Structure formats: C-alpha cells, structure tokens
Amino acid sequence: MRVERLPATSAPRLSDHLDIRPSMAFDRRAIEAVQRVVSSAPIRFELWDGFSVGSEGTSAVATLRLKNRRTLFSWLWDPELNFGEAYMNGAVDVRGDLRELLTAIYRALPESKRRGSREADKHDLGASRDNVHAHYDLGNDFYRLWLDQELLYTCAYFPDPAATLEAAQIAKMDRVCRKLWLTPGERVVEAGCGWGSLALHMARAYGVEVVACNISTEQIAYARERAKREGLDGRVIFVEDDYRNLTGSYDAFVSVGMLEHVGLDQYDALSRLIDRTLAPHGRGLLHFIGRDYRETLNAWIRRRVFPGAYPPTLHEVCERVFEPPRLSVFDVENLRLHYAMTLRHWFDRFEQHAADVCAMFDDAFVRAWRLYLAGSQVAFETGTMQLFQIVFNRRGSATLPWTRLQ
Amino acid sequence: MRVERLPATSAPRLSDHLDIRPSMAFDRRAIEAVQRVVSSAPIRFELWDGFSVGSEGTSAVATLRLKNRRTLFSWLWDPELNFGEAYMNGAVDVRGDLRELLTAIYRALPESKRRGSREADKHDLGASRDNVHAHYDLGNDFYRLWLDQELLYTCAYFPDPAATLEAAQIAKMDRVCRKLWLTPGERVVEAGCGWGSLALHMARAYGVEVVACNISTEQIAYARERAKREGLDGRVIFVEDDYRNLTGSYDAFVSVGMLEHVGLDQYDALSRLIDRTLAPHGRGLLHFIGRDYRETLNAWIRRRVFPGAYPPTLHEVCERVFEPPRLSVFDVENLRLHYAMTLRHWFDRFEQHAADVCAMFDDAFVRAWRLYLAGSQVAFETGTMQLFQIVFNRRGSATLPWTRLQ
Q: Do the chains contact at A395 and B158, CB–CB below 8 Å?
C-alpha cells in the first residue's frame, strides 16, 4: 500500500477553485461521455454544480458526485486508474452502497477484447521484496483489526455459507492438508507463508515438518514468535528469504496466495524450484487468484494495492509451471464464491474498525482499502476473477489417492 | 480398426525363408541395439535361432522372441510403430505377461524431449466420419462381448476399486449428471453419444430433455432403438450428424470421450459450438483422454486403432476451447487410475471372449486389440496418459453450486 508516498492530489489547487464556477457545456458533454461507457448501469452522475445524467430517482443504485473538473477529465483520460484515485482522494462522493455501485459497473463494462496484454513488471529479487514490503509490512496491528484470529489473508473455505470466518479459515487449512494427503513425519515446503498459520497448522494437526519462507520481515518475525510460543519451533522453520532460494527435498510443496505476486516472467523459476524440491513421490498444491482469460490486473489496484501482481489463467500456469517438468494435474477447484464471501467478512470488519484505521493512517488510506476490499468482493462475485486451488503430483506417482478429497 | 484393409505382412515371403538361417554378427548387433533403448527394463530379447540378450532367467518379466530378420530391422527403423505391427502379425512371441512387459517398457523408455510435436491429421467432416467408422462401426456384437451391459466405452468411476464394471459405469454417469447439477425439465446437448447410455440415463434419472449426436451409423441406430423400447424417444433425440452441425440453446453441454478424436485443428470449431449452444446460465462437462505434456499419440495406435486421435494437454484445452468465449473452469478431476481399472476389466473380458473375437475377425485382430487394451491400461497406470473431467460454466454465472460435487 503506497498511498502515503504518492502526491496527495486531494490537496486544494488553483484549478479546484475554478470548479466552483457552474459547469459549462463541455463539462456536461464530458460527464455524458463517461456515463455512456457504463450506460446500462443504474447509476446517476452528478457534477459539482448539481448538473446530472444517468439513471433517475430510485432506479439508481448509487449517485456519483464529482467535486471538480480535474477529476471529471481524469476519468475521460484513464477511467480504470482514476476512478480509484478520485475515490481514494475524496474527489468523488458515492451516495448509495459502494458494492452495489461496483457490481453495476462490472456488469455494464464492455468486455475488454484485449488478448495477450501481458504485464511487463519485473520480479527480480529486489523488486519482489519492494512489492511485498509495500503491502504486507503495513503493521501486524492493522491486519489484526479485520482478519481472523489466525491472521489468514487468503481465501477461506466455507463448508456452509453461514460459517464464521474463523471456522472457514480453519476449514481451508484442513482442506489444503487433506488434498495433499499429508502423513505424520513427512516434510513439507511452503513458499510464501504469511503469518505462518498454515505451516503451524500442518505441523500441529498433521504431524509434518515444515520449512516455510516469506520475504515480509514483519510476518516472519510474528510467525517465529508464534512457533516458539507453541513449542513448534523444532518442527517448523521460518526462513526470511525469497522462494527462489529454497533448497532441500520434500514430500509436499504448498503455496497459498503467492503465485499472483510471482509474475509471469518468474514462472520458469517457480517451475524449476518445484522440480528441484519435490521428491519422486511428491505432490503439491498451488492456491492463487486467476482469470478465465488473459488480462492485466486493474491499473489502480496495481498502483495502490498490489504492485507487480498478475492473476494468471489456468492455461498459463499449466504451460509454464507444470508442463516443463511434466508434473501431472490431479485436481483443480475454483473457489471464487468462497473468496467473495471471505472478502465480505473482511469488508464488514474493516468498516467496523474504520476509525481505528484512520487513526493509524489517514482518510485516504481508509477510502483506498474500502474500495480495494469492496472491488475485490465484487470481482469474485461477478466472475471477473477466479480462485484456483490445483493439486499436482509427479508424473506417474504411484501414491495417488483413489478418489479426490470428498 | 483397420487391420483387415492393410497388407497382411504376416504372410510368408521370400525374405522370411532366409531367416531360417542362423543369426549373423549384424543381427546380433541389431538386437543389442534394440535392447539398449530399454536397457533398464527386465526383458530378454531372443532371435529366431535362440541367440539372446537382456535380463537373465527369473529376473526377466518377459521374453520377446523375434521370428525373422525383417521384424528385427523394422524395430531399429521405427520401434514405436513396428513393435505393434510385429505383435499384431505374430512376428514376435511374448513369453510372460503382456501387461508386465508393457509396464517395464513404459518405465524404461527415455522420456521424449519433443515439445510441440503436433499431429497434422485433418479433421474435416469427411475425415472425421472415416475415423469414427473405422473404430466404432466394427459391429455392436463385438463390443457387447467385452463392454458392460450399458455399452459404455469410456472411463468408469469406481467409488471403490472393488466395484464391478457395471456399477462403476452407472456411478460415472451419475457423477457426470451431478457435476452438471441437472434439474428436471432442463435441456442438455451431448456431443458424441456412443450407444446412447448417458443420454438415456440423464433423461430417465434426472428428468432432462436431451439432443445427442454421433456420426457412427451403427451406434445411432442402436441408441434410437433403445430410446423407443424404453419409451424415452420423446425426450431423447438421437441425431446422426457431426457435432459441428448442432444447433439450438441448452442449459448444459456434455461430451464424454469425444475431444480426443476432435483434433487440435478443430478446437476453435468446438469452442464456437459450445459458445453458440450454451444458455447464459449454462454449464458443461468435457471428459477426455489427455496428457501432462505435448506429445503425439503412439504411432501404432494411430495407424491401427484410432486414426486422427490426439490426447491434448489441459493447457491446450483451456487456451483453445475455454478462453476464446471466456468460459470459466469450475472443477477438474483427473481419473487416470479409474481408466486403468476400467481397461483392466475390458482386457479380462476381452481375453475371455478371444475365441469369439477370432471367429468374427481373425488372429491378427485379436492380437491387435489385446495389445491396444493392455497398452492403454499400462499407459494410464504409469501416468503416460491422463483422464480429465472438466466442469465449466459461463463467466459470472450466478447458478454455481456453493461446493463442488462431494
């Protein structure tokens, strides 16, 4: 999250004062052009002087009131980036429910016809470290406000939609362990371990030994402290290092929520890592945010929330990660509705603690995170993004279970 | 199956008579070269005069005795094609268990490093019809000898490895229907329906209406007769036509065991067909033989058993079938061990009726089918081939089940 490092474009400027003047013909034509992009969405657009276009009265799920001309023209220039910028900076007021508004926008946007628009971000060791620090080192106190008690910051599994977030996160960890058919005494390597909950759960509940790595300093420090407190530090080793530097041979490879940060340019490195660390009978699980088709991540999310992130297609992951070392895909599960539900819980908890977050950071930070959480929930609900959990194994492994996880 | 149309290379020729002479130094060097290709396999190779190389005594799972020089040199020239030709024509005797021999060969063969070796077979309407007739129109009486009573000629699902083939084929059909979450009154289109069992099962047990197509004349005639006999001909329409000619709009699309015959050059046509026939809330299932990496099908199988067949990778199917119309993959299950078990049942039943098959065709036909069934079982057991069942849906469909099939 890099809000604080970027220029505070919400600060008043000369051009803002000019906006106090009534809107002119070209302002009105501009807002009409913006409205046409999402013309089927039940949304009202309003300028600073009250001029408005779009859905009327109660048929509108929300009204967007633009506070100044600069914002209006930034939306014409690059709406994907600047809608988020305006919301974060308080340059647009949303009257109505934010998630209903975003759902309406997702549904109304013409589907991009781009194919092969690959992200060009670099993911060498230094860039990866910067990207991770920017988001994951905001402070454990911040994440504690709105994540579950185990601090799992990835999609949960709700056996029933009414399950609590706490129960769903534990169900997710069990599901991952059971899909990997772990047995006591086995050795597991985890690439990107967050605050260490899954590694500790595997050791505690499944009797395995774990080597888990992460390049987030704060997360690793927290995970080590927890392992020590629980007396698991002899069986779970937390390594503060890049996944590409892992060594050793393991019965299982697991990575939950890292692949979307790896970047296509490093899939060959990830593939070689898996091939290098997996024993002949080994199996693995990759859990990641993906897409049904190639498309870069939303520009605003990349700028403000997840620099360097890219949600891949199944085709890209199969082609670049599994095929070169001839790993065999055993089971793929798409959990997008479960991620939408997870994000619904996070959003609600975040809103309950908005004042605390504001005291830690500022208003722009609160608005940015509100938009990111709401937008992500809606993206999974509308099928714009997917959550894939893939179980794989060495080609020809004789240790396959007869049936997949029931 | 085109055995009968090809020259009977087992007929005696002048060169065979020459082989009565003792083997010479260059014969011995040739058999040594053949043995070196699978040097880690516990197999003994023997020439017509008793000269032998390879594993000794009881350590050998099988002994291959070559009957003539022509066969020996055909193995040096193109072993992938000519091992099958020699077995089919009786030019090599196998002493020992055929499936143990094939397992040893699969395990010992150096993994091909070919990538992107795509098959160049054509699959226009005429070629597809010829390919299908060659295999599926051998006569229903033949298939009745060794398939289950429902005549399902695709991978079964064994809830338990000890289940009967009959129970496992019904469990497979139920699994397909439940993965598609069919509800009574819905309309289903089936591309490539075999003898019609799945279409009839869907209508009978799940209350749906089905349009099912197939270009095998014998299979369609049988299916129509069955529908009429069961009083289901008002709810199941069997169309003798190519899948590419299907029209209409359906709640579900299903295809079991057809994609491996479609050919990569027609995946775009299949993709457009699915996009054209699937309703906005629609979902579908593709069940097919696949691979973990790109490789053409065994040359002998393509020549004698499945002309034009190609088992694709997940990457190829996602890239060419699902991505263009932005279909969303919901669930992938790899059932290769279930196909190995299915083939084990087929092989055993085939062997029990080998005399009947010989009376219908000839010895070469029996040997060819024995090799094809045994080789297929071993290919799935050793992980050389996969069986993928993919459930997909329209992007953003709101009708997804909360959890996948338990």
A: no
